[in-house]
Design a protein that fits this description.
single chain, alpha+beta, three-stranded antiparallel beta sheet, 10 helices, 15% strand
């Protein structure tokens, strides 16, 4: 039986890379303008030993530089350098050191460079990148290098590497998968899970009459109600996206309270009382309507309807809350943060 992974062994990958490296070299023939360099990267094939536990002798830095020829970087960035001026570092050396930093898990260069400077631990990095102990670059060198070539050119170098893996069939671009592992984050999803585009503009009918009846009832039963307490006006959520076992929530239109006038009511308070048809009643008792919150965006006096934007519409509409079985207790469901997740 043929092993489908046999073509990904180090020996087979190395043979295929011989042709790929030559093809890349022939595609990038622009000479680098600087003759004097502070470092000198040279591609050299080295024996790559894989231990039984899967680890590599010399780490990934040795394996990568033993298989891939990074000399093409000089040709790609040649136009960013001038013929005259002081010596500079070999662009391939700087890119490789930055690559070593990334693949070995160092978040910033300030933590990685002391390791490169170390006589023993940094020997491999210096050898593979073509850096000598007399000319170790500093953090500013890498910042200047990124600034000189720019983000687009930096990404172009990575695209060459991606194309190499594509030719090796390690990636095919045919299918993209990801695992479902959950990681603790600072993300917080606030809002309705079943929102839709219509939630930004909901039409509610017969609002003014309902509010007028609420106000009149409160005025006729002052002994039972606290005059200054908050009064909320709700409507049923009109969305049809809720599953059958999920109760539709109430949507708050606005909230107000009745307060005593400390003087002449404001124009807003007068207009609100006129809108609900209770101005005369409130004036007799020296009261006014004090608005607390409102989700109303448009008033349609012709048909006594309001247009509101649902207050439960989340800020981040690209994210939703999904549900999965709790790994510790399969009989319970657990909310998870994710995109269009379904349980």
């Amino acid at each position: 039986m043929v092993n489908p992974f046999k073509k990904f062994t180090v020996n087979n990958v190395s043979k295929r890379l011989n042709k790929i490296n030559l093809k890349i070299f022939l595609s990038h023939q622009r000479p680098f303008p600087k003759l004097h360099l502070l470092s000198n990267y040279q591609f050299k094939k080295r024996f790559v030993k894989v231990f039984p536990d899967g680890s590599l002798q010399g780490g990934y830095a040795r394996m990568i530089t033993s298989l891939i020829d990074f000399s093409f970087i000089r040709s790609l960035v040649a136009h960013c350098y001038a013929v005259f001026g002081p010596p500079c570092y070999d662009p391939a050396s700087l890119f490789l050191l930055d690559l070593f930093r990334y693949i070995d898990g160092y978040q910033d260069m300030s933590r990685f460079l002391p390791l490169v400077l170390d006589q023993d631990q940094g020997r491999g990095y210096r050898t593979y990148a073509g850096i000598s102990t007399d000319n170790i670059p500093c953090e500013a060198t890498f910042s200047n290098f990124r600034s000189r070539i720019g983000e687009n050119l930096y990404n172009e170098i990575f695209h060459v590497l991606v194309d190499i893996f594509h030719q090796l069939e390690m990636i095919t671009f045919k299918i993209l998968t990801h695992d479902g592992t959950l990681y603790p984050t600072w993300a917080r999803y606030k809002g309705c899970t079943y929102f839709c585009q219509e939630c930004q503009s909901i039409t509610v009918n017969d609002v003014t009459s309902k509010v007028r009846n609420r106000i009149l009832y409160r005025l006729n039963n002052l002994s039972k109600n606290n005059l200054g307490s908050e009064c909320r006006v709700y409507t049923d959520c009109p969305s049809n996206r809720f599953p059958g076992d999920v109760k539709r929530p109430k949507v708050e239109l606005f909230a107000f309270k009745l307060t005593f006038n400390d003087g002449e009511p404001s124009p807003e308070q007068k207009n609100t009382a006129i809108l609900f048809g209770v101005k005369e009643v409130l004036d007799k008792q020296n009261l006014c309507i004090s608005a607390l919150r409102s989700n109303v965006s448009t008033l349609n006096p012709d048909d006594d309807s309001f247009t509101i934007s649902c207050p439960k519409l989340p800020k981040d509409t690209d994210a939703r809350i999904g549900v999965r079985r709790n790994p510790q207790n399969p009989d319970k469901k657990q909310k998870i943060f994710g995109y269009n997740a379904r349980g």
